[in-house]
Design a protein that fits this description.
Helix content: 25-40%
Largest sheet: 7 strands, mixed
Structural class: alpha+beta
CATH superfamily of the largest domain: Periplasmic binding protein-like II
CATH class of the largest domain: Alpha Beta
Radius of gyration: 31 Å
Number of domains: 3
Distance between the termini: 56 Å
Number of strands: 24
């Protein structure tokens, strides 16, 4: 009897085990990781040979496989790069954006006719090739036939094709940038196009407004052919057509949503990525567009972007494995160089950018060129680089850096007094100019320096404040910082003069590698980037003539004269240094491209994904 009872009970336990195994088999067979163990309590009834029954409670140990939702499994397998945008992008609208934070994102979610390779040479992008008319004015761009607009459905996460992208979308995008109702601060860059300035400055209420628009030299001949006619022959037409303000734009989406068309869940895009998430002032994430024509070459599936203003906070996150790339904080450079591991992750390279202090030329006391020259001469650029920025930057005495056609970075006859070998001589010259301006030792001098929120910009401002305090001890120099978007609004050319500082910090990086993009696009008196409010008719005439001068040697001479007026004679700005990128990159980042012009092409970055997962414990 005892033996029969035990045999029956063993059979029941076997049945329970089989049931548990069947239950486990229903879970995802591809799930990874250790299986959690749980206890399963089962009540059974055992009948003996004498028809006596007994109730037994059995505790069975079984393994249960956890199953994640499919979208979470997909996310875990996506090659993901984590970056820091550094600030909230003011706009993802190609017609509106003017800052690097915005343009970096725009470059990766939209396509242009052309782009720049690592050597700053123009290459085809959405266009396959182009030809130039005999008179040198009309470029005919032939487009690919596999371009498309896509939409990411926020409910399902699916990326859907909306329709093909055609030449008409480029015509619409360029004309929308020029439309005065768009109020693009960068529209003037396209004034080289025939009829562009007349359209951008026209009255939308005028009876002939439609005719003025039709006269703009941009025409979609058919779905894959775009003609762009310039007012005069220029050799850098294809470079201008690589700027984000000329990108194709989706008319239907813009007309449906108006100014809010770039929000996640609304935006329609054409580039390597599309917008996955935009949690304003916190996070902006991109996800790969599988319908992008070069999708097979895009290795990184997702870009998660934080918006951390302070470099020190971003560095802490980088060191803990939360960022793959970040700027190296100025305050940490000595520690980084001394650390065997971090030193190997520090990357410094020259780039086509210039850091400068702009003077508001129509606000006292910086409305006096002698005051401006004195302030510029009193900046010890070498000391600033050696003791503050520490990134191998070069002291600047001109606006355009090396690598730009028409730059005078190696010509000390232009602004050489800003970078004297003996700073004591430079300081003496600064004090003499300030006294001549009527402020001996700075007496009566009141100045406000403004910068956007950043530890690096704050450190530079404090160093320059100290230099000016030493040079002009009776003056008073204060510092104020503002969030990036607010700062740009404050220093905009059309902002109220009473709200502007005397001195502001900015950097300028190449949109295309020609001096026209520097002296003309920034400091022509009509420029939307002319926060200095610099106005000199001779300068304007010079840079406008240089833009269309066919003799390249003569253009070089004209640009030298323009730089002389800007930074030397009029001292509208104080160039401080020619940039380097000072960046921390994890060892598993295998290809990182710092764009020589325009936004950084994240879609061309690569990483060793398995190495990252191992390094971060995934």
């Amino acid at each position: 009897m005892k033996r029969r009872y035990m045999t029956s009970f063993a059979l029941i336990l076997l049945l329970i085990s089989l049931l548990a195994a069947c239950n486990t088999a229903q879970n995802d067979p591809d799930a990874q990781g250790d299986q959690p163990v749980t206890e399963q309590v089962v009540t059974v009834v055992v009948t003996s040979e004498t028809d006596q029954t007994e109730t037994k409670t059995v505790t069975q140990i079984v393994e249960v496989t956890a199953t994640l939702p499919p979208e979470e499994v997909d996310a875990m397998n996506m090659v993901t790069m984590e970056i820091n945008h550094g600030a909230e992008p003011p706009s993802l609208d190609p017609s509106i954006a003017t800052d690097a934070t915005s343009v970096n994102v725009i470059t990766n979610i939209f396509v242009g006719l052309t782009r720049f390779d690592a050597q700053a040479d123009v290459e085809p992008w959405a266009a396959t090739d182009w030809t130039l008319s005999e008179d040198g004015r009309t470029y005919t761009f032939k487009l690919r036939d596999d371009l498309s607009w896509v939409y990411r459905n926020p409910s399902t996460g699916e990326i859907e094709e909306v329709r093909p992208l055609t030449a008409a979308d480029f015509e619409y995008g360029i004309k929308r940038t020029l439309n005065p109702e768009t109020a693009s601060d960068y529209a003037y860059v396209l004034y080289a196009i025939e009829g562009a300035e007349a359209y951008n400055t026209a009255d939308p209420e005028a009876e002939d407004f439609a005719d003025v628009e039709a006269a703009v030299g941009v025409t979609a001949v058919d779905d894959t052919t775009l003609d762009v006619t310039f007012a005069d022959p220029i050799g850098y037409g294809p470079a201008i057509m690589g700027m984000w303000i000329t990108y194709a734009q989706p008319a239907e989406t813009i007309e449906e949503w108006g100014e809010g068309w770039t929000e996640a869940g609304r935006i329609v895009t054409s580039g390597a990525y599309t917008l996955e998430l935009w949690n304003h002032n916190a996070e902006l994430d991109l996800i790969k567009n599988p319908m992008y024509f070069e999708a097979d070459d895009v290795q990184i599936d997702r870009i998660k972007g934080a918006m951390i203003t302070e470099d020190s906070t971003a560095m802490s996150l980088y060191e803990s494995g939360g960022l793959d790339i970040t700027n190296a904080p100025l305050a940490d450079l000595d520690r980084i160089r001394a650390d065997e591991t971090l030193n190997q992750e520090l990357n410094i390279a020259p780039t086509t950018c210039t850091y400068y202090y702009g003077f508001v030329n129509n606000k006292p006391p910086t409305d006096d060129p002698l005051v401006r020259k004195a302030l510029s001469a009193a900046i010890d650029r070498t000391s600033l680089i050696d003791n503050v920025t520490k990134g191998g930057q070069l002291p600047a005495h001109s606006f355009a850096p090396p690598g730009i056609f028409g730059n005078v970075a190696d010509d000390m006859s232009v602004g050489g007094w800003m970078v004297m070998d003996n700073y004591a001589d430079q300081l003496a010259q600064a004090q003499a100019w300030m006294e001549e301006a009527g402020y001996p030792n700075g007496e009566g001098l009141e100045l406000l320096i403004m910068h956007n929120t950043s530890e690096a910009h704050a450190a530079i401002a404090q160093a320059i404040q100290a230099m000016w305090a030493e040079a002009f001890p009776l003056g008073n120099v204060t510092i104020e910082n503002q969030e990036w978007g607010v700062f740009l609004d404050t220093i905009a050319p059309d902002a109220p003069i009473e709200e502007k500082p005397n001195v502001y910090r900015l950097g300028w990086c190449a949109d295309y590698p020609d001096q026209n993009n520097w002296v003309n696009d920034v400091f022509n008196s009509a420029s939307g980037n002319n926060s200095a409010m610099y106005s000199n008719p001779d300068f304007d005439a010079l840079v406008e003539a240089a833009a269309i001068e066919p003799d390249q040697e003569k253009r070089l001479e004209m640009y030298k004269e323009a730089e002389t007026l800007l930074v030397d004679t009029d001292a509208a700005i104080a160039p401080i240094y020619y940039f380097t990128t000072v960046q921390m990159r994890k060892p598993y980042m295998t290809n990182v491209i710092v764009a020589p012009a325009g936004g950084n092409p994240w879609y061309q970055y690569t990483m060793d994904w398995e190495a990252k997962k191992e390094a971060t414990g995934q």
